[in-house]
Write a structure and sequence with these properties.
Rossmann fold, 8-stranded mixed sheet
């Protein structure tokens, strides 16, 4: 997708590696979405904002040799990484293009369009969904996973440091223009885009019991990646964040309170069908 926000996570090899590592956490959740949305063998699928190819490679195995996947992203560096990964893994049913999915010429139309953590960076997610749906055949599937960074389903009063980290990340995303609670808006936005969304999305907060060190490291990695923007935006100073001791302090707080640190904030998977009656998108 063309970035409509100040992308706080960057475009460099460090960030690309972070995205690959992040997939270890998100892949099982994405698989649940793909199955629920009806992605199956033989389909032709568009991966919107594919980045380094995490979801594209996952889709290529879903659709099998009789299907195909096209991953599109405007970041040429990420596309280079994705192409290299596909070659290394011997996947021949997927390809990658430096394109904005909203303007991509699809011929023939796709059976489905899928995306993960991409609509949150657009200025108008509803308009983006409508444009993406134009690349999908009537009756086809549009499925996305997006975050709700502001979900308050758990209380973090006993872990003020972790609460501060979450607040800092949300503030940085908001200042960048990103949509911080798009996950829970997906149903209405898909409906407003002329699609027919499923009424039972999948909403998950991802945990790994007994692995606080892994969770703390993931949060610190996120903070480290956006630290330049956190400082530029005036959200916190380098001294206030104290990034080199943050992981240790989070672990000490978790051990002291017995709180299980989540690996991720709330992530929502929502899918919809494109109308096949000629109405809407």
């Amino acid at each position: 997708m063309t970035e409509d926000t100040d992308y706080v996570l960057g475009h460099d090899q460090r960030h690309y590696q972070q995205l690959i590592e992040q997939d270890e956490i998100l892949r099982p959740s994405t698989e649940r979405m793909l199955r629920a949305a009806g992605i199956h063998e033989g389909m032709r699928v568009l991966d919107v904002g594919c980045g380094v190819g995490n979801v594209t490679l996952q889709l290529s195995r879903f659709v099998g040799p009789k299907g195909s996947v096209v991953g599109v992203d405007v970041d040429s560096g990420a596309i280079d990484v994705a192409r290299g990964r596909a070659i290394t893994e011997g996947l021949t049913n997927c390809e990658f293009r430096v394109e904005d999915a909203r303007n991509y010429h699809a011929d023939p139309l796709f059976d489905a369009a899928v995306g993960r953590l991409v609509l949150m960076y657009t200025s108008d997610p509803t308009a983006a969904l409508k444009s993406i749906a134009e690349r999908v055949r009537p009756g086809g599937v549009v499925a996305f996973q997006e975050l709700d960074l502001e979900y308050a389903g758990m209380s973090w009063e006993s872990t003020p440091l972790f609460a501060q980290v979450r607040k800092m990340i949300v503030a940085a995303f908001k200042r960048s223009g990103a949509r911080t609670n798009l996950g829970t808006e997906l149903f209405e936005r898909m409906r407003d885009a002329g699609l027919e969304p499923d009424s039972s999305p999948i909403a998950e907060m991802l945990l790994r019991m007994g692995q606080s060190a892994f969770a703390a490291r993931r949060w610190v990695t996120s903070v480290r990646g956006m630290l330049p923007r956190v400082i530029d935006y005036g959200i916190a100073t380098e001294a206030q964040v104290d990034i080199d001791t943050l992981e240790r302090r989070l672990l000490e707080e978790a051990a002291r309170t017995g709180v299980v640190l989540p690996l991720w904030t709330l992530i929502v998977a929502q899918w919809a069908r494109k109308r096949d009656d000629g109405l809407g998108s």
